[in-house]
From TrEMBL:
Bilayer disposition of the protein: Single-pass type I membrane protein
Family: Belongs to the tyrosinase family.
Lineage: Eukaryota, Metazoa, Chordata, Craniata, Vertebrata
Superkingdom to which the source organism belongs: Eukaryota
Gene name of the record: Tyr
Organism annotation: Irena cyanogastra (Philippine fairy-bluebird)
Listed Gene3D superfamilies: Di-copper center containing domain from catechol oxidase
GO biological process terms, semicolon-separated: melanin biosynthetic process; pigmentation
EC top class named in words: oxidoreductase
Domain Tyrosinase copper-binding: 202-219, 383-394
The entry's keywords: Copper, Glycoprotein, Melanin biosynthesis, Membrane, Metal-binding, Monooxygenase, Oxidoreductase, Signal, Transmembrane, Transmembrane helix
Protein name: Tyrosinase
Pfam families reported in the protein's UniProt record: Tyrosinase
GO molecular function: identical protein binding; metal ion binding; tyrosinase activity
Alphabetical list of InterPro entries matching this protein: Di-copper_centre_dom_sf (IPR008922), Tyrosinase/Hemocyanin (IPR050316), Tyrosinase_Cu-bd (IPR002227)
Length: 529
């Protein structure tokens, strides 16, 4: 009870990170298409008086998109967030947030100048007290309303182009469930028509950066509502697991004694209600999920379709995936071959990297294996195992970044499916984040993984490996440069010798090789290069 009261107080006092800012969910903001709230610190829009930021026109990417979505002007998520707002706060330095009232990920302090790196840990390495605290935090988030954000219950057209706002309150945990749904929902085309081949968070290059931001936001929100600034999301290392090791009442909920599709009554999660799971119903009504309760969490791990997902992922699957050098390839969707992203997401075989959507590997395998709420994309975040699972998926992404050290240009700038180009803003986040901004090592974003922390390099080979891999990619250029350099050196040497022969002996030829100490201070260093 004390924890609940403390959390409720903190959420009122501190801003959060989410979807539609409450202060911008009104007729004036929608009709003016401006979301530039005042910062509480000085009362000016975006904290402009304190040089935290300013209200600016959003800068949309003009890069061409892939062919997967053949429409234009039919979905509110196109060119996010321009259908709702075309002016938002652009924050300076290390400030962030819809009003520039927060610090960027990885920074803290009054002026956001203090760097910090926090460690995400294996859930089985937590003490009993730490584990119980994590479970209590989850339950707290499920029971506290978000003070700063609301969700949309209608499209912009259904809102009469902004003159009839349609928003509602939501609790902190379900806010993130709804955001995951909104990013992956089908496009409503009118009548009973929908377009299913669209997803702003999956099946394309943005899958890993999008979920990285999602977890960072979720992690920060828990820190805020609990007052525990040191909280980090634990992960479940599912490599080589024979069953769902976290599916017991000590952790994420065991199996119901009489109904194998439900959770044990002894688990706090058995009382949770899910939202946004009835996609076909929403489609037939041409409506958005309104976040009303739709029944308990469903989970029946291991009783899934074995022809699609015969087992949980192995260490060998992960190692093969990490060996892939291309982040993205081909059509940059679920048909991509030899793509690290597509293989980790689970649409390509984890032993060959050849696309096979009929099978589910790595990330997808866990979702299918859970055989319940986790197995339906739009509503999968209802099951709290979701955050444990995606934290470990993010750690594999992190391992790949550290091993291959890709330049930002490796992330596709153009021709990716809608919403997934490097400079596209991620749907449905406000404040705005671009995909490419999170294609970087996690330590630059303020966190690390316990099992990836090394006190020292294990060997000289470990040190050289990433540089050797980069050298292999440019070896032809290096050889060419070496040959060209050798030719130039030979020519210059010949010319110098020829000149010396013409001039004959000079005074410089009999100067001592070492400078006498008394003359040293009279010499000035200059370059004639």
């Amino acid at each position: 009870m004390l924890l609940f009261a403390l959390g409720f107080l903190l959420i009122i006092l501190q801003p959060s990170t989410g979807q539609f800012p409450r202060v911008c969910a009104n007729v004036q903001s929608l009709l003016s298409k401006e979301c530039c709230p005042p910062w509480d610190g000085d009362g000016s829009p975006c904290g402009e008086l304190s040089s935290r930021g300013s209200c600016q026109n959003i800068r949309l990417s003009q890069a061409p998109l892939g062919p997967q979505f053949p429409f234009s002007g039919v979905d509110d998520r196109e060119d996010w967030p321009s259908v709702f707002y075309n002016r938002t706060c652009r924050c300076e330095d290390n400030f962030m947030g819809f009003s520039c009232g927060e610090c960027k990920f990885g920074f803290s302090g009054l002026n956001c100048t203090e760097r910090q790196v926090k460690t995400r840990r294996n859930i089985f390495q937590l003490t009993a007290s730490e584990k119980n605290k994590f479970l209590a935090y989850l339950n707290l988030a499920k029971n506290i309303p978000s003070q700063d954000y609301v969700i949309a219950t209608g499209t912009y057209a259904q809102m009469n182009n902004g003159s009839n706002p349609m928003f509602r309150d939501i609790n902190v945990y379900d806010l993130f469930v709804w955001m995951h749904y909104y990013a992956s929902r089908d496009t409503l085309l009118g009548g009973s028509n929908v377009w299913r081949d669209i997803d702003f968070a999956h099946e394309a290059p943005g899958f890993l950066p999008w979920h990285r931001v999602f977890l960072l936001m979720w992690e920060r929100q828990i820190q805020r509502i609990t007052g525990d600034e040191n909280f980090t999301i634990p992960y479940w290392d599912w490599r080589d697991a024979e069953d769902c090791e976290v599916c017991n009442d000590e952790y994420m909920g065991g199996r119901h004694p009489t109904n194998p599709n439900l959770l044990s009554p002894a688990s706090i999660f058995s009382s949770w209600q899910v939202i946004c799971t009835r996609s076909e119903e929403y489609n037939s009504q041409q409506a958005l999920c309104s976040a009303t309760s739709e029944g308990p969490i469903r989970r029946n791990p291991g009783n899934n379709d074995k022809s699609r997902t015969p087992r949980l992922p192995s260490s060998a699957d992960v190692e093969f995936c990490l060996s892939l050098t291309q982040y993205e390839s081909g059509p940059m969707d679920k048909m991509a071959n030899y793509s690290f992203r597509n293989t980790l997401e689970g649409f390509a075989d984890p032993q060959t990297a050849i696309s096979n959507p009929a099978q589910s590997g790595l990330h997808n395998a866990l979702h299918i294996y859970m055989n319940g709420s986790m197995s339906q994309v739009q509503g999968s975040a209802n099951d709290p195992i979701f955050v444990l699972h995606h934290a470990f998926v993010d750690s594999i992404f992190e391992r790949w970044l550290r091993r291959h050290r890709p330049m930002l240009e490796v992330y596709p700038a153009a021709n990716a499916p809608i919403g997934h180009n490097r400079e596209n803003y991620m749907v449905p986040f406000i404040p705005l984040y671009r995909n490419g901004e999170f294609f970087k090592p996690s330590r630059e974003l303020g966190y690390d993984y316990e099992y990836l922390q090394e006190p020292a390099l294990q060997s000289f080979q470990d040190f050289l490996t990433p540089y050797l891999q980069q050298a292999r990619q440019i070896w032809a250029w290096l050889v060419g440069a070496a040959v060209f350099g050798g030719i130039v050196t030979a020519v210059l040497t010949g010319l110098i010798r020829a000149c010396r022969k013409k001039k004959g002996g000079t005074a410089s030829e009999i100067q001592p090789l070492l400078i006498e100490s008394e003359d040293y201070n009279n010499i000035t260093y200059q370059s004639n290069f």
